[in-house]
TrEMBL record:
Record keywords: Cell membrane, Membrane, Transmembrane, Transmembrane helix, Transport
Compartmental location: Cell membrane
InterPro entries linked: Ig-like_fold (IPR013783), MetI-like (IPR000515), MetI-like_sf (IPR035906), UgpAE/MalFG_permease (IPR050809)
Organism: Streptomyces luteolifulvus
Listed name of the protein: Sugar ABC transporter permease
GO BP terms in the entry: carbohydrate metabolic process; transmembrane transport
Superkingdom, natural source: Bacteria
Domain ABC transmembrane type-1: 87-440
Chain segments carrying region Disordered: 1-21
Keyword Cell membrane applies: yes
Length: 450
């Protein structure tokens, strides 16, 4: 067998073929990446980078942009009462609204997992997200109306209040001063100058109410009779006029339920209420006493809470924000809850943990990344809140509900005309948002490297 000899290295050896190095994929296709990124970069520059740069530059000039003022606009922000109120309210929004929304979203997401109609409930809670801020503001402006006949909030409050406290029947009534000797005696009450005698019916004519505004279906007034201490309380006026003032005339209406007190030496010795025909009867000890109509007969009705007043306007608007965004938090947290390992929950229950302990020590820690996402997103969102405050807060209390985004609008376009201060507020808002964005980006990078 012929042996195969290995060719010797030297002149007779065949040279190895030369292999040209491959070009870098990134280097050869960089122009393709730039081509695809160019539209996005142009839009980013036109809609984000340029406005930010222009706002920073404009904040260094005066109202009309003709004079350089340096940092004076920033000094004006922190020396102006309206802007300081806006800073304070923005801090309240950031501290309160995201926390409440996140907690409610967590509660809804956990509870709806165990009910058969959980999907329908989630749909109802999420539905406000389909409503614009403008529409939500108009809705809650009506909800918070002071008049209980128009505002739902005060309709509920007054209904609960009236269920436990009596309201006056005739808040605008008063004795007919031209024919009655009853005079104001403090606390909204009226006391007669003379005394009442048994067998002589007392006449208490009231005015100040339109006959067609009386509650219910009042009966015609009737003159009291009998030998005891009696009297009549009636409306001394009838539609069409006529009759004698101070006398019970046909067609004049009785005032039912008016409380009458008999007072001797400043002490109430007896009391009674007028009946359907306006008459009342007091016991014998009332003989020789002065008659008094206590102020409870004429107290103004309870009209609920001043939701949009200076004290409650910011909490009321935060309530409308919670109504809108609770569904957003619920959906995100429910999505995170669906990915939780149920074996961990069951293991905790097997070890003897009750439902509250499972929720607090297992469910919440496992949902912590999702809760942080929701909380940070809402914090960024509330820093630029504008629509709800501008629409819901009435003009008298708008200064008390002011926030930075609204102050920016008012300074620049809402009559202030100071674009320098408005730009400075915009820059401050950007600086406030940047730390939150930095925390969010850092968290996302950590999540990516896991």
């Amino acid at each position: 067998m012929a042996s195969l000899a290995k060719p010797a290295e030297g002149a007779g050896a065949r040279p190895a073929p030369s292999v040209s190095p491959r070009k870098s994929v990134t280097r050869t296709r960089r122009w393709v990446a730039v081509l695809f990124l160019l539209p996005a970069l142009v839009l980013l520059g036109a809609l984000v980078v340029y406005p930010i740069g222009y706002s920073v530059w404009r904040s260094l000039y005066d109202a009309d942009g003709s004079g350089f003022v340096g940092l004076d606009n920033y000094g004006d922000i922190f020396s102006n009462d309206s802007t300081l109120t806006a800073v304070r309210n923005t801090a309240i929004w950031v501290a309160v609204a995201p926390a409440i929304v996140t907690v409610l979203g967590l509660i809804f997401a956990v509870l709806t997992e165990r009910v058969r109609w959980g999907t329908a409930f989630k749909l109802i809670v999420f539905m406000p997200m389909a409503i614009s801020m403008l529409a939500a503001g108009i809705i809650f402006r009506l909800v918070y109306e002071q008049d209980p006949d128009q505002g739902v909030a005060n309709a509920v409050v007054t209904s609960v209040h009236d269920a436990f406290a009596e309201s006056s029947v005739y808040p605008k009534a008063r004795p007919n001063a031209s024919v009655s000797d009853m005079k104001p005696s403090g606390g909204g009450s009226f006391t007669a100058a003379g005394t009442v005698r048994a067998g002589t019916p007392a006449l208490i004519p009231l005015v100040g109410i339109a006959p067609d505004k009386l509650p219910g279906t009042p009966e015609d007034a009737r003159a009291a009779t009998g030998s005891g201490v009696t009297g009549t309380v009636w409306l001394d006026f009838k539609l069409g006029g006529g009759g004698t003032k101070g006398q019970v005339d046909p067609g004049e209406k009785a005032l039912k339920g008016v409380k009458v007190e008999a007072v001797k030496d400043g002490t109430v010795v007896a009391s009674a209420q007028s009946g359907a025909d306006g008459t009342f009867s007091l016991p014998a000890e009332a003989d020789g006493a002065q008659l008094r109509l206590p102020g409870s007969n004429f107290a103004a009705p309870y009209n609920g809470i001043d939701w949009l007043g200076p004290t409650l306007v910011t909490p009321a608007i935060i309530g409308s924000y919670v109504w809108m965004w609770a569904g957003f938090a619920m959906v995100l947290i429910a999505a995170g809850l669906a990915g939780v390992d149920r074996n961990l929950l069951e293991a905790a229950r097997v070890d003897g943990a009750n439902e509250w302990q499972v929720f607090r020590r297992v469910t919440v820690p496992l949902l912590a990344p999702v809760l942080v996402v929701v909380l940070v997103t809402l914090m960024i969102n509330v820093m630029k809140i504008f629509d709800l405050v501008y629409i819901i807060a009435p003009q008298p209390s708008q200064d008390d509900a002011n926030v930075l985004a609204l102050q920016l609008f008012l300074s620049s376009f809402g009559g202030g005309g100071n674009y320098g201060v408005g730009s400075a507020i915009g820059v401050i808002l950007l600086l406030l948002v940047l730390p939150v964005m930095f925390v969010n980006i850092r968290r996302l990078r950590k999540e990516r490297h896991r």
